[in-house]
Design brief:
single chain, alpha/beta, FAD/NAD(P)-binding domain, 8-stranded mixed sheet, 12 helices, globular
């Protein structure tokens, strides 16, 4: 159904490049518009869990991912003060590859994949308004240029003009949490490829190595009353990060001592979009279902979306039917992931006392006597394979 079909994608992020590749590999003529004037190294680390890795493999990008991002060995939960291990989840299953990647490396893998599939990338195209109509969608750009495209995929992120065209404005709420992110030079190729969560009262910090131990990725979350702006580009003084985690283990304090450039953003809860599609427009990734970072699933949901949307358009003769199939397939799962991520911070931020001791004790006992049962709690997440539907 897609052979020769003209499709425009807004956004050259993970969602946009992935769906562009998935569509072009099925025969569509795809172009991607992005407001940036160049594809630059932005962001920090992310986790490509098995449910996302299967999509990259199906797009022919599995080997490139394996070369650019090491497979993770485990996720480890530790106590904040002494660093004592509370729980360890083994990730070494051969059939479920779990990778620790730099966002820029994943973007480059997807960009090359899209280019090889024949996708056209147009940079410096800032679309300010999207106007859907049954016969096509009008795009009005910041430079005064306007055009009407036959089919539009809005992979344009958290503050998506495509989402705004399909949905009434909503007011996100501040969760009372802020997050710092940074990467710290390591030059330590022997660093174990593990994601570690140090859990403390009202705070936690996630660390994992990138690029073969050349960098340590850091995401540090703190509960606070003071509001902070949303977005990844707000610089902060590294001293504020160090002060917030001054009572954590010596390992964490030593690591943060080397932090030189840090960014702070407020964590806001956005609702899942009520309308994912109308006429000849559909939403994808964060534009449809923004999520908090506590399950590391933003990129993986975007990859899943990309595959399902391309498959739906390829198998249904009517666009409306394809969009309905896509939304019906994705909405429930994405809503479940968003809700689970929102609750996960509470599990990390328990204050010292009987409840925290009991919770950590249960994790330790489970890890000792029934590790597979505990790990199995994530089968619904990691074991989901959207490519198996084909």
């Amino acid at each position: 159904m897609l052979m020769g079909r003209e499709i425009t994608v807004l956004g050259a992020g993970i969602a946009g490049l992935a769906v562009a590749s998935a569509l072009a590999r099925r025969g569509a003529q795809v172009r991607v518009l992005d407001q940036a004037d160049a594809v630059r190294e932005v962001g920090a680390g992310l986790q490509v869990s098995p449910n996302g890795a299967v999509v990259l493999k199906a797009l022919g990008l599995g080997d490139a991912l394996a070369q650019a991002a090491p497979r993770a060995r485990a996720v480890v939960l530790r106590d904040f003060r002494r660093g004592a291990q509370v729980f360890r989840m083994d990730l070494a299953r051969a059939d479920r590859p779990y990778h620790l990647a730099h966002r820029a490396d994943l973007i480059e893998i997807l960009r090359r994949g899209a280019q090889a599939a024949g996708v056209t990338l147009e940079l410096g195209r800032r679309v300010e308004t999207v106007t859907p109509a049954p016969g096509g969608t009008r795009l009005d750009c910041a430079d005064g240029h306007s055009e009407t495209v036959p089919l539009l995929i809005g992979a344009d992120g958290l503050h998506s003009p495509t989402r705004a065209a399909l949905n009434a404005a909503t007011r996100p709420f501040f969760t009372g949490q802020v997050a710092w992110r940074c990467t710290i030079p390591l030059d330590a190729p022997d660093t174990p490829p593990e994601a570690t969560v140090h859990m403390g009262p009202g705070r936690h910090i996630v660390t994992y190595p990138l690029r073969g131990g050349a960098l340590m990725n850091v995401v540090a979350v703190e509960e606070r009353d003071g509001w902070a702006a949303e977005g990844w580009s707000h610089r902060d003084d590294p001293a504020h990060l160090r002060a917030a985690f001054a009572d954590f283990s010596p390992e964490i304090r030593d690591l943060l001592h080397s932090a030189e450039e840090v960014y702070l953003w407020g964590l806001f809860r956005h609702p899942v979009a009520k309308n994912w599609a109308r006429d000849r427009v559909a939403l994808l990734g964060d534009a449809a279902h923004p999520t908090l970072p506590f399950l590391a699933q933003g990129a993986n949901m975007a990859l899943e979306d990309a595959w399902v949307l391309a498959e739906s358009l390829d198998q249904e003769s009517e666009t409306a039917t394809a969009f309905a199939r896509y939304e019906a397939t994705r909405r429930g799962r994405c809503a479940r992931i968003v809700e689970a991520a929102s609750k996960n911070a509470d599990n990390y931020h328990l204050s010292p006392g009987p409840y925290r001791a009991a919770a950590h004790g249960a994790l330790r006992l489970g890890a000792r006597f029934a590790p597979q049962a505990l790990a199995g709690r994530f089968d619904w997440l990691y074991g989901h394979d959207v490519t198996a539907r084909s």
